[in-house]
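User: I'm putting together a small comparison set for a docking exercise, and I want a reference complex before I start. The sequence is below, and the ligand is HDE. Could you produce the 3D structure with the ligand included, as structure tokens?
Assistant: Of course. I'll restate your input first, then give the structure tokens for the complex.
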Amino acid sequence: MTMIPGRPSSVTPPVDEPTEPIEPADSKPDQDTPEARTPTGIPAGTPEAGRQQGAHLTTSQGARLRDSDHSLKAGERGPSLLQDHHLREKITHFDHERIPERVVHARGAAAHGVFEGYGTAEPITMAGFLAKGKQTPVFTRFSTVLGSRGSADTVRDTRGFATKFYTDEGTFDLVGNNIPVFFIQDGIKFPDVVHAAKPHPDREIPQAQSAHDTFWDFVSLHTEAQHHTIWNMSDRGIPRSFRMMEGFGVHTFRMINADGDSTLVKFHWKPRLGVHSVTWEEAQLINGIDPDFHRRDLADAIEAGGYPQWELGIQTFPDTPEQTFQGIDLLDPTKIVPEELVPVQPIGLLTLNKNVSNYFAETEQVAFHPGHLPPGIDVTDDPLLQARLFSYIDTQITRLGGPNFNQIPINRAHAPVNDMLRDGFHQDAVHNGVAPYKPNSLDGGCPFFAGTADKPFVDAAVTIPDGSAKVRAQPASFDDHFSQPRLFWQSMSPVEQQHIIGAYTFELSKVYEQAIKERQLIALANIDATLCAEVAAGLGLGVPKATEQPVEMSPSPALSQVGREWPLDGRLVGIVTDADPDAAQLRELREEISSTGMVPLIIAAHGGSIEDIPIQRTFSNTRSVEFDAVLLAGCPAPAPDAQVSRDSKAGATGDDQLDPRVMLLIAECFRQAKIIGAWGPGTDALRIAGDYSGVGIVTDPAPGAVLNEVRRLLGTHRAWDRFPAVPA
Ligand code: HDE
């Protein structure tokens, strides 16, 4: 895989404006969308697909235009004329370009791909797309939850992970998150939790943050939210990349086989690249330096051929009347079943291999719905899921302007559709026939119902207990709010625990109301005494007593991100050069880095190139947060006119100087436990910057030896031991 990092994804070389009509440039290969998604009606596969609509500009009615820059006026300096139909069409259409953003998950990034079934789920489901070797086109949209469409990517938040499988038997939407539990147990509270988490209604701040009074007011009062909240406060709330996130269906679903047998399942997405995060300091810096960090990362990786992959897996449980597993209520969406107790069994592989051609048409207009189910997959009575089954169609009616959103190309099923839904806003279909009702005699009785052999969708045969009363209530098993947050806390490594303490302390320090902080501290006391004491100390508050007896839990190592090694595909390696670089060495190094799937980025004092090697970053336009590791190939001196600020360790004079921006780069990398490699003059840079040594600092006279060791260490993502451990 050869990545072309750091360039806008559709770079066109600068050219003079053509004076004659020319055919538009070829599309990028990843823009050839299947016919079902071609927005202009040009058949996929033709040379025109993915282009503008042709060489000449026209009105919406196809009349060719000779000018679109000047309105029709009564004289050169006179008023514009009402008769200018092109002006009015252009402005009117523009006035209506925006649609309401999603009420939650407004900011997203998406890609096309393919899903291949392993066949391992065949005994428990008749869903055809899970058959061995069966390939199904998919569209996956990742998102943050709280922020507006224009908010930043690396905010502390849950991430959406929604996949549309265009199966031959009807579309299946797996609309999940990167956190396996949810804030609430009953969907009726969804408007409450979202109102609490969104910005305050008076000033509309803060944007895309949970660090404010109303959020903590809600979660400290609704303690069922504490499990989801501790995941948000952990490193899972600030992923390194969409490509490095797990995904979860959250609810328990059902799989139904051809005999009608039902099995309960929980869906998991396992990223091939492992689960990694940025640190809170990095996240905050990235939000300023590159607010599009995650969407850029996804698009760049796909464009460069580094296709991200996830295995779809399931945990399975017998569909007994109790629907519990070892005391864990499977209908309670605030609970997980640890993987150590019920392993995740892989059932297929997702590969994202095509970027979207048009953000609005695809990423913005895609409409997911947990009720889009093919034969073989069904829902359970989880009260959160039940409410979602209503919400997702309803919300599109406002957002996409009517009930025909399923006709938008990105939402069209790939299975043949023959419904009796008619008319309505934005009706694009020209339906034949006179009898869209059943039974009828006028259309020859068509369409007919499918018989069993035609594999229709059959609802799971669920028995409802006789004598049930209508109640607004929930089972007692839903009342345990603290055992699983405690399980999560106890499963973390010391450094992850330290990050969690830091996150709670940061967030609660932004809360104004003392009573809310104190109430949240009681919730923390119910999770773990050390966690509570550390956060209380950070806030300068007393340590409250727990109100619940802590339950002893056995840790689930699968919940920790630390301690495993992962592939390095797409990891960004910065190479700092000075005024006297060894071009041959750099060329070799870049090739070596690229050949292992990583991305080398040359950093220098100014733009341009070193012989034929492009300089992709300068000391002024980059920060440490862009890189997973940094190699010091030189010791760049400060710019002659720079005001050099240096600490006492760098107090040497003469040649013993380092550009202060590189000093900062090295210091930040060190603080964030990134792997740093250096050789030759690079070791001087390391020394001047702060005499850095120890774990994750690799020096050797030979660049190749440095790179090998850096690569080995990067497999664990960071030099974890460099972070201070959680206080005893
Ligand atoms: Fe959603 N959610 N949600 N949600 N959700 C939406 O649908 C809703 C919940 C999730 O990329 C909305 O089209 C209710 C859980 C994702 O387009 C809306 C409840 C999970 C996305 C909606 C939940 C999710 C949404 C907003 C509680 C993880 C983005 C726009 C009963 C399993 C999909 C839209 C995309 C989007 C409602 C809870 C995931 C309003 C009522 C739990 C990934 O319909």
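The pocket of HDE is lined by residues 102-105, 108, 141, 143, 160, 162, 175-177, 182, 187, 190, 250, 366-368, 384, 387-388, 391-392, 395 (CB under 6 Å). Residues 482-559 form a domain with the Hemocyanin, N-terminal domain fold (CATH 1.20.1370.20).
User: Thanks, that's exactly what I needed.
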